[in-house]
Amino acid sequence: MTKISELKDFSECSTTYILAVNDTINVINGKWKAAIISSLFFGKKRYGEIEKDIPKINSRMLSKELRDLEANGIVVRKVYDTIPVGVEYELTESGHAFRKVLDVMLEWGLEHRKNVIGKTI
Q1: Each residue of 71-92: pLDDT tens digit?
Q2: pTM of the full predicted structure?
Q3: Cα dihedral sign for 16, 17, 20, 23?
Q4: Domain ranges for the chain
Q5: Whether residue 116 has pLDDT greater than 80
Q6: What is the DSSP string of 20-49?
């Protein structure tokens, strides 16, 4: 994983900077992706377990978002030859590395809520 200190100086807006930010946004684009990734930080889970972790997500949307995350290399889907067929989802190395991004987002969100709304969760 590239460290910010290893990158060239971004004192000016560069194409590399814009592309990297857009790549990040494309991976988490949507209401549910960050929640799904967060659920999987705690280990492999079956579809129903993820669904229980995320209130208000419908089955169709969870399926779509899991496929998108799999296509983006964040989640891996493992199918087991059992009856009924067993399916588990887990984070890839890239998915686990995304925790740093979510931790910063959490920190910023809590501070922003406190400053703008005037209360904490």
Answers
A1: 999 999 999 999 989 999 999 9
A2: 0.78
A3: negative
A4: 32-117
A5: yes
A6: HHHHHHHHH-SSSHHHHHHHHTT--EEHHH
